[in-house]
Amino acid sequence: MTSLTIERAKAALRNAFVGDALAMPVHWFYNPADIYKAFPLGIEQFENAPSLHPSSIMSLHSTQQGGRANKALASQKEIVGEVILKGKRQYWGKHNVHYHHGMKAGENTLNAHCARIVLTCALKGYDESEFLNQYISFMRADEPQHPDTYAESYHRGFFANLEQGVPADKCGAVTHDTASIGAFVSVAPLAVVETAKNTALNDIKYLCRKHLYLTHPDESLASVCDYYVELIYKLIHRHDESPEDILEDIARNSAHMNLASLKAKNKSDIEVVGRMYSPACYISDAWPAVLYFAYRYADNPKKALIANTNVGGDNVHRGFVLGAILGLIHGAEITQWFSELADAKKLNLLIDSLDV
Questions:
Q1: Per-domain residue ranges for the chain?
Q2: What is the DSSP secondary structure assignment for residue 25, as one 8-state letter?
Q3: CA 159 → CA 8, 82, 106, 165, 285, distances in Å?
Q4: Banded pLDDT at 59 (limits 50, 70, 90)
Q5: Mean pLDDT for the chain?
Q6: CATH 1.10.4080.10 assigned to 3-355
Q7: Among residues 306, 329, 330, which one has the least CA distance to residue 318?
Q8: Distance CA 116, CA 211 (A)
Q9: Which of 21, 131, 140, 260 shows its CA 20 to 30 Å from the CA of 84?
Q10: What are the residues whose beta carbons fall under 8 Å from the beta carbon of 302, sequence distance 6 or more?
């Protein structure tokens, strides 16, 4: 492992957690005007989650499985409250409750905490069984191991299957939003660590696909995952090639995008991620959105993460995925923001072990 490779890898990991925490207060705000109502200047720094969420649909989400609530399942075991998110069931089923109710400035969301589990496993030498054991123990803990109120569809579907006796490695559930950008949050640390260890690209793709399928069994998502892994690999190992050229190539092949042409049109961010592409979680739009922000603001990571945050939608998960890319481009974390993360010390110890 060269020192430059390690610098880039560490910066990717640190900035990923920054991107998640920055967007947390306005996660799934689908009207950007609502962001500016809650925060008149938009999000420019870490903030507490506001008490009111104008576009929350937590009340429609099932607490018994992945996806939307289904009255026909009234007799089925409650996953939220009884199996995972113990003590948080009271916040579900109500209008306008924030997905990250009560979370404080600089705290990371549930998926980022799960990414830490993947990072821990990857640093020791990734083992599927070890990851599943840690993930299950973490999620089912009686004493909460994270500050979050919400669990994405994939968590609920996984534990619904597990409660029904499905083997852990087959518990990945298929719902309307399986092919979503949130899947890449746990792929990022695995791909970054394996690339830093100089594992062959095809081997990393295979490993990340296998990991992805544990929670997000979807072939179209896995195909895009291959490109995300390739992007990480090429950015870490680049020599003379510019990051913009690498991004252009990946965008052309994975999303039929011409990033240079799109940037030259000089549209506002909301015109691009809001009109051209949906700000929602679905990978068909979220992946092009990530590539757009990485390319347009390749020279300014703070601006990139702020822009991603203030268009709303699934900005938290895009932010984690985007943060990793920006760290690889610059080989430096956004120091001020990283130091303000609630778990900065724990994350530092973990990330610094990459070069031990």
A1: 3-355
A2: G
A3: 35, 11, 28, 10, 28
A4: low
A5: 94
A6: yes
A7: 306
A8: 14
A9: 21
A10: 334, 337
User: Does position 339 have pLDDT exceeding 90, yes or no?
Assistant: yes
What amino acid is encoded at 310 in this protein? N
CA separation for the pair 18, 25 (Å, rounded): 13
State how far the Cα of 134 lies from the Cα of 300, in Å rounded to an integer. 36
Long-range pairs for 65-72 at CB < 8 Å and ≥24 separation?
Answer: 65/156, 65/157, 65/160, 65/173, 66/153, 66/154, 66/155, 66/156, 66/157, 66/158, 66/160, 66/173, 66/175, 67/153, 67/157, 67/175, 67/176, 67/177, 68/176
pLDDT digits (tens, 9 = 90+) for 271-308: 999 999 999 999 999 999 999 999 999 999 999 999 99
Q: Which residues contact 196 (CB under 8 A, 6 or more apart)?
A: 1, 5, 6, 9, 236, 354
Residue 16 to residues 38, 55, 99, 112, 184, Cα–Cα distance (Å): 24, 25, 20, 9, 11
User: Would you state the pLDDT for residue 78?
Assistant: 87
Sequence-distant (≥ 6) Cβ neighbours of residue 125 within 8 angstroms: none
Tokens at residue 89, please? 């069931």
Cβ atoms of 279 and 315 closer than 8 Å: yes
Is-contact 144 60, C-beta < 8 A? no
pTM for this prediction: 0.96
Q: What is the pLDDT of residue 67?
A: 41
Alpha helices, H only, the chain:
3-23, 32-38, 110-124, 128-140, 153-163, 184-196, 201-215, 219-237, 243-255, 259-264, 269-272, 283-296, 301-310, 315-330, 335-339, 344-352
User: Phi then psi for 97, rounded to 5 degrees?
Assistant: -75, 135
Model pLDDT, residue 243:
98
**pLDDT > 70 in the chain, percent:** 94
For residue 144, the tally of other CB atoms under 10 A from its CB is 14
CA distances, 309 to each of 39, 47, 111, 181, 292 (Å): 12, 12, 17, 15, 13
Whether residue 169 contacts residue 212, with contact meaning beta carbons closer than 8 Å, is answered with: no
In contact, 147 and 221? CB cutoff 8 Å: no
Confidence of residue 93 (pLDDT cuts 50, 70, 90): confident
